[in-house]
TrEMBL record:
The lineage of its organism: Bacteria, Pseudomonadati, Pseudomonadota, Alphaproteobacteria, Rhodobacterales. InterPro entries: Peptidase_M32_Taq (IPR001333). It comes from Pseudohalocynthiibacter aestuariivivens. It catalyses: Release of a C-terminal amino acid with broad specificity, except for -Pro. Belongs to the peptidase M32 family. This is Metal-dependent carboxypeptidase. Its EC number is 3.4.17.19. The keyword Metal-binding applies. It is an enzyme of class 3 (hydrolase). Broad specificity carboxypetidase that releases amino acids sequentially from the C-terminus, including neutral, aromatic, polar and basic residues. GO terms for molecular function: carboxypeptidase activity.
Length: 492
């Protein structure tokens, strides 16, 4: 076998083991018995040790050296780019540290869940200190003396920097804040959804929604979790959702969001399976798929018209008179503390809060003990009301408990990318709303699959967005979309 063939054979086994690790994580969140948490942490640590050894195998360096200057095709070159980047990063992290991170973050997830349930930040603070300390140690190992935060950010958005994202977010913020103030001060406000909606019927309808967006249940499954997520790739991409007796939109749109993630994975060219190209290229691009599915498609006037009829069939008369009123209710801007339940207008303000706080945590400028006060003060300043309990504040998200520092900004970056993709998709498919009004998303999702999803990791994040859209990504399309949408709904 050639050096490339030997390298790719090694990589395929590593990718397969990584999928097994991901499946253990999925099981931990959905079906694992509570009493198994300690053993699971040891299992995760053991498997991470095996993966770390494979990812730092000295033969990878030899194979890469043998391939220097070789004439390779586009796919081969892209595979080597990913392998070289991963090998360089992983080789800098001691095996003992990698295993300890896996062990501690597996345990931390359960500690966070219990602390969140008990509304007790102090019960989680010590564990978060451990996780943060290990992530700082990891960042120091891979940063080559540069920014810790930028080093961690590369795991989620290769090529991005904290300064670059801060500049983009600074451009977003003024128009978002101004639009929010106009909406809050508007004389017309949509009516809220009131009542109770049987959870069994919510789950039944959410499966209809998943299928409407093209989710293939023969290669996935839908379960419930505390924090909705998507897991897996290739021919096994699973999703989770959650239900609330008084808020079915939480269930429906969490599902659509996770379907966007899963369909990205399922839509990648089959030839890339179990290679570095066989998964989404970055979390920002991944989030562009979940957000455009959830918002620009799922919350559009056309699609909500169809969803209104589905809800009437499931729940009978639920107090909203017609599809126009339902569209406004679905997109209602409300006072809420939870990021995952936030409307499109305010969602990014939730992300910017976390982005700023986690940079301070990683740098050491903010102590874990001071996190609740820092969170609550920033939240009050941004949203105009106080956080009432930790589960609505700094305990609401799972991310920091599992060491995902650098992940949060990709949510807003994904929104920016989704704004660009929505503009390009609607220019390319001008009659898309006609199909959406019948519950048929295939024209919209088919365009995304053809122009973005199938490429997997073939291109760099910014390049795949620019190639799909025909223009360089910027925040302008997202801001224009939000201003047009909410000005109409609130009659500004």
């Amino acid at each position: 076998m050639t050096a490339y063939q030997e390298l790719l054979a090694h990589q395929r086994e590593t990718e397969a083991l990584a999928q097994i690790s991901g499946r253990l994580g999925w099981d931990q969140e959905t079906m694992m018995p509570r009493g198994a948490a300690s053993q699971r942490s040891e299992e995760m640590a053991a498997l991470e040790g095996v993966l770390h050894a494979r990812r730092t195998d000295v033969r990878i360096g030899d194979w890469l050296s043998a391939l220097e200057g070789a004439e390779l095709g586009k796919v081969e070159t892209a595979n080597l780019r990913h392998i070289r980047r991963d090998f360089t990063r992983t080789s800098k992290v001691p095996a003992k540290l990698a295993a300890e991170l896996a062990r501690v973050t597996s345990l931390s997830q359960g500690v966070w869940a219990e602390a969140r349930k008990a509304e007790d930040f102090d019960a989680f603070a010590g564990t978060l200190e451990k996780v943060l300390g290990l992530k700082r140690e990891e960042a120091d190992a891979i940063s080559d003396g540069g920014s810790r935060y930028d080093a961690l950010l590369q795991d989620y958005e290769p090529g991005a920097t904290g300064a670059e994202l801060a500049a983009m977010f600074s451009a977003l913020r003024p128009r978002l804040v101004a639009l929010r103030e106009c909406v809050i001060g508007a004389s017309h406000h949509p009516v809220p959804l009131i009542g109770e909606f049987e959870e069994r019927l919510q789950m039944k309808l959410t499966r209809v929604l998943a299928r409407a967006f093209g989710y293939d249940f023969s290669r996935g499954r839908l379960d419930k979790a505390v924090h909705p997520f998507s897991s897996g790739s290739g021919s096994d991409a699973r999703i989770t959702t959650r239900t609330s007796l008084t808020d079915p939109f939480n269930c429906f749109y969490s599902t659509i969001h996770e379907v966007g993630h899963a369909c990205y994975e399922l839509g990648i060219d089959d030839a890339y399976a179990l290679t570095p190209l066989g998964q989404g290229v970055s979390m920002g691009v991944h989030e562009s798929q979940s957000r455009i599915y959830e918002n620009q498609i799922g919350r559009s006037r056309a699609f909500t018209g169809w969803l209104f009829e589905q809800m009437r069939q499931s729940f009978g008369d639920f107090g909203i008179p017609d599809s126009d009123a339902f569209y406004s209710t679905v997109n209602r801007v409300g006072q809420g503390s939870i990021r995952t339940e936030a409307d499109e207008l305010q969602y990014n303000l939730h992300v910017l809060l976390r982005f700023d706080l986690e940079q301070s945590l990683v740098s050491g400028d903010l102590a874990v003990a001071d996190l609740p006060d820092a969170w609550n003060q920033r939240f009050k300043a941004d949203f105009g009301f106080a956080v009432d309990k930790p589960s609505n504040g700094c305990l609401q998200d799972v991310h920091w408990s599992v060491g995902l520092f650098g992940y949060f900004p990709t949510y807003t970056l994904g929104n920016v990318y989704a704004g660009c993709l929505n503009k390009a998709m609607r220019d390319a498919v001008p009659n898309v709303d006609t199909a959406l009004s019948q519950g048929d998303t295939s024209a919209a999702t088919g365009w995304l699959q053809e122009n973005l999803q199938r490429h997997g990791g073939l291109y760099e994040p910014k390049d795949v967005i620019e190639q799909a859209c025909g223009f360089a990504p910027s925040e302008a399309p997202l801001l224009d979309y939000l201003e047009n949408k909410f000005s109409e709904i609130y009659r500004l």
